[in-house]
């Protein structure tokens, strides 16, 4: 892996984040899918605050980044991919796909296990869904997710470049599929063959429990179909469906202090 990329992985990721964020935010203003029900200023302040808080928390908790763990794994020849032969490009592609499957399974786990759901539900109490929702995750969930990601990287022996590509893709597709953009139905149907679309993922943010527990994919759309968690459309339609959780309908849950407090409140299971 190019030393320049290793040394500049953080600014590279941040650069992609800014490009995708600005692009999706502009698209939402020009061609929104749904009218917003809550104050954009209130929502964005809380969502962006936790977006920039989470990397700080990660740096305080973990001495190494995911890419540095991948480099360490390669140096010590840890993991399945380091133990087998084959073209580097094939192993790199396999690592990206395997990491995406791991994120899908992790997402299901955070819905199925009540202790984990207490942290993940902060992501679901947003009253609307737009580009900022794509990074709205509780700091403790981010820490737990990082533990699982590091374990997966070590077990796989994922190449450092694959980890960087995956993190950029996951970040970009999360902002894309949470964005409030209008896509022609034909384009949405075509994109769903290889990418999770906003209409596909919006179902996952429905207030209806059976819809909340569907469409767990963030990047690749195949896992939901393969494991039987795919739901094509919301029962009420995209314009009329209600976003959020029934137990968290008060405006205070859009503020950062209450967002952080959500896991410690006694509310229903998903």
UniProtKB/TrEMBL annotation:
The chain crosses the membrane at residues 12-30, 51-72, 146-170. Keywords: Membrane, Transmembrane, Transmembrane helix. It comes from the Bacteria. It holds the Pfam family FA_hydroxylase. GO terms for biological process: lipid biosynthetic process. The keyword Membrane applies. GO terms for molecular function: iron ion binding; oxidoreductase activity. The keyword Membrane applies. It is found in: Membrane. Coiled coil: none annotated. Residues 94-229 form the Fatty acid hydroxylase domain. One of its GO terms (cellular component) is membrane. This is Sterol desaturase family protein. It comes from Candidatus Nitrobium versatile.
């Amino acid at each position: 892996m190019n030393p320049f990329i290793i040394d500049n992985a953080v600014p590279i990721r941040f650069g992609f984040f800014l490009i995708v964020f600005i692009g999706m935010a502009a698209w939402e203003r020009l061609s929104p899918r749904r009218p917003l029900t809550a104050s954009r200023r209130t929502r964005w302040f809380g969502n962006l605050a936790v977006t920039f808080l989470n990397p700080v928390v990660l740096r305080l908790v973990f001495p190494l980044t995911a890419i540095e763990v991948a480099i360490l794994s390669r140096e010590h020849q840890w993991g399945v991919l380091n133990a087998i032969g084959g073209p580097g490009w094939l192993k790199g592609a396999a690592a990206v796909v395997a990491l995406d499957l791991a994120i899908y399974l992790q997402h299901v786990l955070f819905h199925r296990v009540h202790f984990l759901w207490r942290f993940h539900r902060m992501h679901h109490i947003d009253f609307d869904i737009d580009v900022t929702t794509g990074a709205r995750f509780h700091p403790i969930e981010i820490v737990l997710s990082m533990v699982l990601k590091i374990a997966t990287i070590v077990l796989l022996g994922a190449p450092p470049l694959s980890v960087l590509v995956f993190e950029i893709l996951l970040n970009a597709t999360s902002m894309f599929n949470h964005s409030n953009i209008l896509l022609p139905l034909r384009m949405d149907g075509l994109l769903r063959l290889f990418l999770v679309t906003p209409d596909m993922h919006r179902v996952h943010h429905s207030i209806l429990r059976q819809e909340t527990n569907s469409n767990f994919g963030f990047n690749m759309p195949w896992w939901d179909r393969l494991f039987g968690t795919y739901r094509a459309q919301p029962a009420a339609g995209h314009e009329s469906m209600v976003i959020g959780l029934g137990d968290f309908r008060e405006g205070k849950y859009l503020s950062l202090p209450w967002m952080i407090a959500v896991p410690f409140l006694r509310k229903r299971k998903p």
